[in-house]
Amino acid sequence: MVTATREEQVWAALAEVPDPEIPAVSVVDLGVIGDVRFEGQRLTVELLPTFVGCPAIEVMQQQIGERLRNFATEVEVPVTFSPPWTSERISAEGREKLRASGFAPPVAIQAAPSASAFGDDELLTVLPLATCPYCGSRNTALENPFGPTLCRAIYHCADCRQPFEQFKAV
Amino acid sequence: MSELDAVPRQALAELLLTVADDEFVIGFWDSEWTGIAPMLEEDVAMSSISQDEIGHARALYELLAGLTDTDADAIAFGRPAADFRHAALLNHARTDWAFTVARRYLYETADAVRLAALARSSYAPLSELVTKMRREESYHLLHMDAWLRRLAAAAHDRLASALERAWPDAQAIFTPPAGEAALLEAAILPDPFAALHERWLGQLRPVFAELDLPIVSAAVPSDGRTRRTDDFAWLHGEFTSVAGSEAGATW
Protein backbone atom coordinates (compact mmCIF):
# COMPACT_ATOMS: atom_id res chain seq x y z
CA MET A 1 0.00 0.00 0.00
CA VAL A 2 1.31 3.37 -1.01
CA THR A 3 0.97 6.20 1.49
CA ALA A 4 -0.45 9.43 0.06
CA THR A 5 1.97 12.35 0.06
CA ARG A 6 1.07 15.46 2.06
CA GLU A 7 0.16 17.23 -1.18
CA GLU A 8 -2.15 14.38 -2.20
CA GLN A 9 -3.83 14.56 1.19
CA VAL A 10 -4.36 18.28 0.71
CA TRP A 11 -5.95 17.70 -2.71
CA ALA A 12 -8.22 15.06 -1.18
CA ALA A 13 -9.27 17.51 1.54
CA LEU A 14 -9.88 20.25 -1.02
CA ALA A 15 -12.18 17.90 -2.92
CA GLU A 16 -14.48 18.16 0.13
CA VAL A 17 -14.70 21.97 -0.04
CA PRO A 18 -17.87 22.92 -1.95
CA ASP A 19 -18.23 25.92 -4.25
CA PRO A 20 -20.25 28.45 -2.20
CA GLU A 21 -22.58 29.28 -5.10
CA ILE A 22 -23.02 25.80 -6.61
CA PRO A 23 -22.36 23.41 -3.69
CA ALA A 24 -22.80 20.34 -5.93
CA VAL A 25 -19.28 20.93 -7.24
CA SER A 26 -16.09 21.16 -5.21
CA VAL A 27 -13.37 23.76 -5.64
CA VAL A 28 -11.27 20.99 -7.21
CA ASP A 29 -14.02 20.04 -9.72
CA LEU A 30 -14.27 23.70 -10.65
CA GLY A 31 -10.55 23.98 -11.33
CA VAL A 32 -10.06 27.04 -9.12
CA ILE A 33 -7.13 25.49 -7.23
CA GLY A 34 -3.71 26.30 -8.67
CA ASP A 35 -0.40 25.42 -7.11
CA VAL A 36 -0.34 23.53 -3.78
CA ARG A 37 3.00 23.62 -1.98
CA PHE A 38 4.57 23.11 1.41
CA GLU A 39 7.52 25.22 2.53
CA GLY A 40 8.52 24.05 6.00
CA GLN A 41 5.48 24.59 8.20
CA ARG A 42 3.76 26.80 5.67
CA LEU A 43 1.16 25.54 3.20
CA THR A 44 0.28 27.71 0.20
CA VAL A 45 -2.80 26.96 -1.91
CA GLU A 46 -3.33 29.27 -4.89
CA LEU A 47 -6.90 30.26 -5.73
CA LEU A 48 -7.81 31.13 -9.34
CA PRO A 49 -11.11 33.07 -9.34
CA THR A 50 -13.63 32.21 -12.06
CA PHE A 51 -14.35 35.95 -12.40
CA VAL A 52 -12.17 38.81 -11.14
CA GLY A 53 -15.13 40.31 -9.26
CA CYS A 54 -16.50 37.03 -7.91
CA PRO A 55 -18.01 37.91 -4.50
CA ALA A 56 -17.42 34.36 -3.25
CA ILE A 57 -13.62 34.67 -3.27
CA GLU A 58 -13.29 35.52 0.42
CA VAL A 59 -15.71 32.78 1.48
CA MET A 60 -13.68 30.28 -0.55
CA GLN A 61 -10.42 31.46 1.02
CA GLN A 62 -11.92 31.08 4.50
CA GLN A 63 -13.40 27.64 3.82
CA ILE A 64 -10.18 26.35 2.29
CA GLY A 65 -8.09 27.77 5.14
CA GLU A 66 -10.44 26.23 7.69
CA ARG A 67 -10.46 22.79 6.03
CA LEU A 68 -6.65 22.73 5.78
CA ARG A 69 -5.73 24.20 9.14
CA ASN A 70 -4.44 20.87 10.52
CA PHE A 71 -2.01 20.45 7.64
CA ALA A 72 0.42 23.24 8.60
CA THR A 73 0.95 25.95 11.20
CA GLU A 74 0.44 28.57 8.54
CA VAL A 75 -2.03 28.16 5.66
CA GLU A 76 -2.14 30.80 2.98
CA VAL A 77 -4.70 31.01 0.18
CA PRO A 78 -3.53 33.81 -2.15
CA VAL A 79 -5.57 34.82 -5.22
CA THR A 80 -3.69 34.59 -8.51
CA PHE A 81 -4.53 35.34 -12.15
CA SER A 82 -1.54 33.40 -13.45
CA PRO A 83 -2.61 31.18 -15.07
CA PRO A 84 -6.05 32.72 -15.64
CA TRP A 85 -9.00 30.50 -14.75
CA THR A 86 -10.85 29.45 -17.88
CA SER A 87 -13.92 27.27 -18.20
CA GLU A 88 -11.70 24.55 -19.68
CA ARG A 89 -10.38 24.01 -16.13
CA ILE A 90 -13.67 22.41 -14.98
CA SER A 91 -13.01 18.67 -14.68
CA ALA A 92 -15.02 15.99 -16.52
CA GLU A 93 -16.45 15.00 -13.15
CA GLY A 94 -17.28 18.64 -12.42
CA ARG A 95 -19.13 18.96 -15.73
CA GLU A 96 -21.20 15.87 -14.94
CA LYS A 97 -22.03 17.19 -11.46
CA LEU A 98 -23.06 20.54 -12.92
CA ARG A 99 -25.32 18.84 -15.47
CA ALA A 100 -26.89 16.63 -12.79
CA SER A 101 -27.77 19.70 -10.73
CA GLY A 102 -29.40 21.53 -13.64
CA PHE A 103 -26.51 23.59 -15.01
CA ALA A 104 -25.31 23.19 -18.56
CA PRO A 105 -21.53 22.90 -18.54
CA PRO A 106 -19.63 25.55 -20.54
CA VAL A 107 -18.96 24.86 -24.19
CA ALA A 108 -15.63 25.73 -25.78
CA ILE A 109 -15.40 29.34 -26.95
CA GLN A 110 -15.32 30.02 -30.69
CA ALA A 111 -13.95 33.15 -32.32
CA ALA A 112 -16.60 35.42 -33.80
CA PRO A 113 -15.80 36.31 -37.40
CA SER A 114 -18.00 39.42 -37.53
CA ALA A 115 -17.39 41.31 -34.30
CA SER A 116 -13.63 41.04 -34.35
CA ALA A 117 -12.67 44.68 -34.68
CA PHE A 118 -11.82 45.64 -31.14
CA GLY A 119 -8.81 44.82 -29.09
CA ASP A 120 -7.68 41.33 -29.88
CA ASP A 121 -9.62 39.21 -32.35
CA GLU A 122 -9.46 35.76 -30.87
CA LEU A 123 -11.01 36.78 -27.56
CA LEU A 124 -14.30 37.93 -29.00
CA THR A 125 -16.71 35.11 -28.75
CA VAL A 126 -19.88 33.82 -30.26
CA LEU A 127 -21.90 32.21 -27.56
CA PRO A 128 -22.25 28.54 -28.43
CA LEU A 129 -25.44 26.52 -28.07
CA ALA A 130 -25.91 24.92 -24.71
CA THR A 131 -27.27 21.41 -24.29
CA CYS A 132 -30.34 21.29 -22.06
CA PRO A 133 -29.29 19.64 -18.76
CA TYR A 134 -32.84 18.28 -18.30
CA CYS A 135 -33.68 16.61 -21.62
CA GLY A 136 -30.40 16.69 -23.54
CA SER A 137 -31.83 18.74 -26.42
CA ARG A 138 -29.61 21.09 -28.44
CA ASN A 139 -32.71 23.03 -29.47
CA THR A 140 -31.97 25.80 -26.98
CA ALA A 141 -31.76 29.59 -27.11
CA LEU A 142 -29.65 32.05 -25.15
CA GLU A 143 -31.98 34.30 -23.18
CA ASN A 144 -29.32 36.38 -21.46
CA PRO A 145 -25.53 36.05 -21.36
CA PHE A 146 -25.74 37.63 -17.89
CA GLY A 147 -27.38 35.48 -15.23
CA PRO A 148 -27.94 35.44 -11.47
CA THR A 149 -24.20 35.35 -10.77
CA LEU A 150 -21.26 36.61 -12.82
CA CYS A 151 -20.38 33.11 -14.00
CA ARG A 152 -23.84 32.02 -15.21
CA ALA A 153 -25.86 32.64 -18.41
CA ILE A 154 -29.60 32.00 -18.87
CA TYR A 155 -30.98 29.71 -21.61
CA HIS A 156 -34.35 28.29 -22.59
CA CYS A 157 -34.99 24.80 -23.95
CA ALA A 158 -37.49 24.80 -26.84
CA ASP A 159 -38.15 21.06 -26.46
CA CYS A 160 -38.86 20.57 -22.75
CA ARG A 161 -39.71 24.27 -22.28
CA GLN A 162 -37.47 24.53 -19.28
CA PRO A 163 -35.35 27.60 -18.56
CA PHE A 164 -31.89 26.64 -17.35
CA GLU A 165 -28.51 28.15 -16.57
CA GLN A 166 -25.17 27.55 -18.16
CA PHE A 167 -21.83 27.94 -16.46
CA LYS A 168 -20.41 30.64 -18.72
CA ALA A 169 -17.52 29.99 -21.05
CA VAL A 170 -14.68 32.43 -20.32
CA MET B 1 9.54 43.62 -11.25
CA SER B 2 9.66 44.53 -7.58
CA GLU B 3 12.92 46.38 -8.24
CA LEU B 4 11.13 49.11 -10.24
CA ASP B 5 12.83 52.46 -10.00
CA ALA B 6 11.00 55.32 -8.32
CA VAL B 7 10.12 57.10 -11.58
CA PRO B 8 8.42 54.22 -13.46
CA ARG B 9 6.94 53.08 -10.17
CA GLN B 10 5.20 56.41 -9.66
CA ALA B 11 4.04 56.41 -13.30
CA LEU B 12 2.71 52.86 -12.95
CA ALA B 13 0.76 53.96 -9.88
CA GLU B 14 -0.80 56.79 -11.93
CA LEU B 15 -1.66 54.39 -14.76
CA LEU B 16 -3.29 51.87 -12.41
CA LEU B 17 -5.29 54.64 -10.80
CA THR B 18 -6.68 55.89 -14.14
CA VAL B 19 -7.81 52.44 -15.31
CA ALA B 20 -9.18 51.49 -11.88
CA ASP B 21 -11.09 54.77 -11.48
CA ASP B 22 -12.64 54.38 -14.95
CA GLU B 23 -13.90 50.90 -14.12
CA PHE B 24 -15.04 51.92 -10.65
CA VAL B 25 -16.98 55.02 -11.70
CA ILE B 26 -18.72 53.50 -14.74
CA GLY B 27 -19.56 50.48 -12.59
CA PHE B 28 -21.25 52.73 -10.03
CA TRP B 29 -23.12 54.82 -12.60
CA ASP B 30 -24.55 51.86 -14.45
CA SER B 31 -25.38 49.93 -11.29
CA GLU B 32 -28.11 52.58 -10.94
CA TRP B 33 -30.04 50.71 -13.66
CA THR B 34 -30.62 47.79 -11.30
CA GLY B 35 -34.38 47.58 -11.04
CA ILE B 36 -35.20 50.26 -13.63
CA ALA B 37 -33.58 49.11 -16.90
CA PRO B 38 -35.85 48.97 -19.99
CA MET B 39 -36.58 45.27 -19.42
CA LEU B 40 -35.99 42.65 -16.78
CA GLU B 41 -33.28 40.84 -18.75
CA GLU B 42 -31.41 44.12 -19.05
CA ASP B 43 -31.71 44.75 -15.32
CA VAL B 44 -29.80 41.53 -14.75
CA ALA B 45 -27.31 42.19 -17.54
CA MET B 46 -26.45 45.76 -16.53
CA SER B 47 -26.15 44.74 -12.88
CA SER B 48 -23.82 41.91 -13.81
CA ILE B 49 -21.69 44.09 -16.08
CA SER B 50 -21.44 46.74 -13.36
CA GLN B 51 -20.43 44.10 -10.83
CA ASP B 52 -17.69 42.96 -13.21
CA GLU B 53 -16.39 46.53 -13.54
CA ILE B 54 -16.31 47.14 -9.80
CA GLY B 55 -14.57 43.79 -9.38
CA HIS B 56 -11.94 44.84 -11.94
CA ALA B 57 -11.51 48.15 -10.12
CA ARG B 58 -11.01 46.32 -6.85
CA ALA B 59 -8.31 44.06 -8.29
CA LEU B 60 -6.54 47.10 -9.81
CA TYR B 61 -6.79 49.07 -6.54
CA GLU B 62 -5.28 46.08 -4.75
CA LEU B 63 -2.40 46.03 -7.20
CA LEU B 64 -1.92 49.74 -6.59
CA ALA B 65 -2.20 49.31 -2.81
CA GLY B 66 0.55 46.66 -2.89
CA LEU B 67 2.75 48.98 -4.92
CA THR B 68 2.26 52.05 -2.72
CA ASP B 69 1.85 50.28 0.62
CA THR B 70 -1.71 51.51 1.18
CA ASP B 71 -5.11 49.85 1.37
CA ALA B 72 -7.51 49.23 -1.54
CA ASP B 73 -10.58 50.36 0.41
CA ALA B 74 -8.84 53.57 1.43
CA ILE B 75 -8.02 54.30 -2.21
CA ALA B 76 -11.58 53.57 -3.35
CA PHE B 77 -13.57 55.19 -0.56
CA GLY B 78 -11.16 57.47 1.29
CA ARG B 79 -10.27 59.97 -1.45
CA PRO B 80 -11.92 63.34 -2.03
CA ALA B 81 -13.74 63.69 -5.37
CA ALA B 82 -10.98 65.95 -6.73
CA ASP B 83 -8.40 63.15 -6.44
CA PHE B 84 -10.22 60.77 -8.80
CA ARG B 85 -8.60 60.22 -12.19
CA HIS B 86 -11.42 58.77 -14.32
CA ALA B 87 -11.99 60.07 -17.85
CA ALA B 88 -14.31 63.09 -18.29
CA LEU B 89 -16.77 60.80 -20.15
CA LEU B 90 -17.63 59.33 -16.76
CA ASN B 91 -18.38 62.69 -15.16
CA HIS B 92 -21.93 62.66 -16.52
CA ALA B 93 -24.99 61.32 -14.73
CA ARG B 94 -26.67 58.19 -16.03
CA THR B 95 -29.51 60.15 -17.74
CA ASP B 96 -31.50 58.00 -20.24
CA TRP B 97 -30.96 54.60 -21.82
CA ALA B 98 -29.78 56.06 -25.15
CA PHE B 99 -27.01 57.98 -23.35
CA THR B 100 -26.09 54.91 -21.30
CA VAL B 101 -25.75 52.83 -24.48
CA ALA B 102 -23.84 55.60 -26.29
CA ARG B 103 -21.43 56.14 -23.41
CA ARG B 104 -20.90 52.49 -22.65
CA TYR B 105 -20.35 51.57 -26.30
CA LEU B 106 -17.65 54.24 -26.59
CA TYR B 107 -16.19 53.20 -23.24
CA GLU B 108 -16.14 49.45 -23.90
CA THR B 109 -14.53 49.81 -27.32
CA ALA B 110 -11.89 52.23 -26.01
CA ASP B 111 -11.28 50.00 -23.00
CA ALA B 112 -10.83 46.99 -25.30
CA VAL B 113 -8.10 48.80 -27.22
CA ARG B 114 -6.42 49.90 -23.98
CA LEU B 115 -6.59 46.45 -22.36
CA ALA B 116 -5.26 44.73 -25.50
CA ALA B 117 -2.17 46.94 -25.10
CA LEU B 118 -1.86 46.43 -21.33
CA ALA B 119 -2.06 42.65 -21.78
CA ARG B 120 1.42 43.06 -23.32
CA SER B 121 2.75 45.11 -20.38
CA SER B 122 6.22 44.27 -19.06
CA TYR B 123 4.78 44.53 -15.53
CA ALA B 124 3.62 40.93 -15.07
CA PRO B 125 1.05 41.46 -12.27
CA LEU B 126 -0.75 43.93 -14.57
CA SER B 127 -0.55 41.86 -17.77
CA GLU B 128 -1.80 38.77 -15.90
CA LEU B 129 -4.77 40.59 -14.39
CA VAL B 130 -5.64 42.29 -17.69
CA THR B 131 -5.48 38.97 -19.55
CA LYS B 132 -8.11 37.64 -17.17
CA MET B 133 -10.22 40.83 -17.33
CA ARG B 134 -10.36 40.74 -21.13
CA ARG B 135 -12.10 37.38 -21.15
CA GLU B 136 -14.93 39.00 -19.16
CA GLU B 137 -14.90 42.29 -21.04
CA SER B 138 -15.53 40.50 -24.35
CA TYR B 139 -19.06 39.75 -23.08
CA HIS B 140 -19.62 43.45 -22.33
CA LEU B 141 -18.44 44.40 -25.80
CA LEU B 142 -20.76 41.92 -27.51
CA HIS B 143 -23.65 43.10 -25.38
CA MET B 144 -23.11 46.79 -26.13
CA ASP B 145 -22.55 46.08 -29.82
CA ALA B 146 -25.98 44.41 -29.88
CA TRP B 147 -27.56 47.42 -28.11
CA LEU B 148 -25.91 49.95 -30.41
CA ARG B 149 -27.31 48.11 -33.44
CA ARG B 150 -30.73 47.72 -31.87
CA LEU B 151 -31.06 51.41 -31.02
CA ALA B 152 -29.54 52.49 -34.36
CA ALA B 153 -32.46 50.70 -36.01
CA ALA B 154 -35.24 51.53 -33.54
CA ALA B 155 -34.32 54.96 -32.12
CA HIS B 156 -31.69 56.27 -34.50
CA ASP B 157 -32.01 60.01 -33.86
CA ARG B 158 -32.11 59.68 -30.12
CA LEU B 159 -29.01 57.47 -30.16
CA ALA B 160 -27.23 59.85 -32.55
CA SER B 161 -27.83 62.85 -30.30
CA ALA B 162 -26.71 60.89 -27.23
CA LEU B 163 -23.52 59.98 -29.09
CA GLU B 164 -22.96 63.62 -30.03
CA ARG B 165 -23.11 64.47 -26.33
CA ALA B 166 -20.78 61.64 -25.31
CA TRP B 167 -18.14 62.00 -28.04
CA PRO B 168 -16.09 65.02 -26.88
CA ASP B 169 -15.48 63.68 -23.37
CA ALA B 170 -14.94 60.12 -24.64
CA GLN B 171 -11.58 61.24 -26.07
CA ALA B 172 -10.43 61.67 -22.47
CA ILE B 173 -10.18 57.88 -22.08
CA PHE B 174 -6.93 58.38 -24.01
CA THR B 175 -5.65 61.28 -21.91
CA PRO B 176 -2.37 59.73 -20.75
CA PRO B 177 -1.52 59.48 -17.06
CA ALA B 178 1.32 61.61 -15.71
CA GLY B 179 4.63 59.93 -16.52
CA GLU B 180 3.68 58.30 -19.83
CA ALA B 181 7.26 58.60 -21.12
CA ALA B 182 8.60 56.58 -18.19
CA LEU B 183 5.92 53.92 -18.76
CA LEU B 184 6.86 53.61 -22.42
CA GLU B 185 10.55 53.43 -21.62
CA ALA B 186 9.99 50.61 -19.13
CA ALA B 187 7.56 48.90 -21.61
CA ILE B 188 4.95 48.91 -18.84
CA LEU B 189 2.85 50.62 -21.51
CA PRO B 190 3.69 49.05 -24.90
CA ASP B 191 2.12 51.81 -27.06
CA PRO B 192 1.57 55.53 -26.42
CA PHE B 193 -2.02 56.57 -25.71
CA ALA B 194 -2.00 58.72 -28.87
CA ALA B 195 -1.50 55.55 -30.94
CA LEU B 196 -4.25 53.74 -29.03
CA HIS B 197 -6.58 56.67 -29.70
CA GLU B 198 -5.93 56.43 -33.46
CA ARG B 199 -6.43 52.67 -33.36
CA TRP B 200 -9.78 53.11 -31.61
CA LEU B 201 -11.06 55.70 -34.09
CA GLY B 202 -9.95 53.50 -36.97
CA GLN B 203 -11.95 50.60 -35.57
CA LEU B 204 -15.07 52.69 -34.91
CA ARG B 205 -15.27 54.39 -38.32
CA PRO B 206 -16.60 51.43 -40.36
CA VAL B 207 -19.18 50.51 -37.68
CA PHE B 208 -20.48 54.08 -37.43
CA ALA B 209 -20.54 54.48 -41.22
CA GLU B 210 -22.55 51.27 -41.54
CA LEU B 211 -25.09 52.43 -38.94
CA ASP B 212 -25.12 56.06 -40.13
CA LEU B 213 -24.07 57.32 -36.70
CA PRO B 214 -21.99 60.45 -36.09
CA ILE B 215 -18.31 60.50 -35.20
CA VAL B 216 -17.34 63.78 -33.58
CA SER B 217 -13.61 64.00 -33.79
CA ALA B 218 -11.88 66.08 -31.17
CA ALA B 219 -8.41 66.31 -29.77
CA VAL B 220 -7.55 64.36 -26.65
CA PRO B 221 -7.79 66.96 -23.86
CA SER B 222 -4.81 67.32 -21.55
CA ASP B 223 -7.13 67.86 -18.56
CA GLY B 224 -9.41 64.93 -19.52
CA ARG B 225 -8.73 63.09 -16.27
CA THR B 226 -8.71 65.97 -13.79
CA ARG B 227 -11.94 67.83 -14.65
CA ARG B 228 -14.73 67.05 -12.18
CA THR B 229 -18.45 67.92 -12.23
CA ASP B 230 -21.38 68.32 -9.83
CA ASP B 231 -22.80 65.04 -11.17
CA PHE B 232 -19.64 63.24 -10.07
CA ALA B 233 -19.60 65.05 -6.73
CA TRP B 234 -23.07 63.62 -6.15
CA LEU B 235 -22.03 60.07 -7.13
CA HIS B 236 -18.92 60.35 -4.94
CA GLY B 237 -21.16 61.28 -2.00
CA GLU B 238 -23.28 58.20 -2.72
CA PHE B 239 -20.51 55.62 -3.01
CA THR B 240 -18.56 56.92 -0.01
CA SER B 241 -21.62 57.27 2.25
CA VAL B 242 -21.52 53.78 3.77
CA ALA B 243 -17.74 53.66 4.28
CA GLY B 244 -17.89 57.21 5.66
CA SER B 245 -20.62 56.39 8.18
CA GLU B 246 -18.22 54.45 10.42
CA ALA B 247 -14.60 55.35 9.77
CA GLY B 248 -12.17 52.47 10.20
CA ALA B 249 -14.87 49.80 10.54
CA THR B 250 -14.37 46.33 9.10
CA TRP B 251 -17.28 45.50 6.83
Structure, explained:
The complex is a heterodimer of chains A (170) and B (251). Chain A is 17% helix and 22% strand. Chain A is built from 3 helices and 9 strands, in the order αββαβαββββββ. Chain A has a 4-stranded mixed beta sheet with strand order 4-9-8-7. In chain A, strands 1-2-3 form a 3-stranded mixed beta sheet. Chain A has a two-stranded antiparallel sheet with strand order 5-6. Chain A is elongated, with a radius of gyration of 18 Å. About 4% of the residues of chain A have low confidence. With 251 residues, chain B is mostly helical. Chain B is 67% helix and 0% strand. Chain B has 10 helices and no strands. In chain B, helix 2 runs antiparallel to helix 5. Chain B starts with 5 loop residues before the first helix and ends in a 6-residue tail after the last helix. The mean pLDDT of chain B is 95. Classes of the chains: A alpha/beta (170), B mainly alpha (251). Chains A and B meet through loops of A and helix 2, helix 4, helix 5 and helix 8 of B.
Major sheet of chain A: 4 strands, mixed
Helix and strand content put the structural class of chain B at mainly alpha
Question: Percent of residues of chain B in helical segments?
Answer: 55-70%
Please provide the count of β strands of chain A.
9
Silhouette of chain A? elongated
Determine and state the CATH class of the largest domain in chain A. Answer: Alpha Beta
Class from helix and strand fractions of chain A: alpha/beta
Helix and strand element order of chain A? HEEHEHEEEEEE
Average pLDDT across residues of chain A? 88
Q: Which blocks of ≥5 consecutive residues of chain A have pLDDT under 50?
A: 112-117
Architecture blueprint of SSEs:
The complex is a heterodimer of chains A (170) and B (251).
Chain A: H1 6-14, E1 33-39, E2 42-47, H2 57-67, E3 74-76, H3 92-100, E4 103-104, E5 110-111, E6 125-126, E7 140-144, E8 152-157, E9 163-167
Chain B: H1 6-31, H2 40-68, H3 72-77, H4 97-118, H5 124-154, H6 156-170, H7 180-185, H8 193-210, H9 230-239, H10 241-245
Helix pairs in contact in B: 1-2, 2-5, 4-5, 4-6, 4-8, 5-6
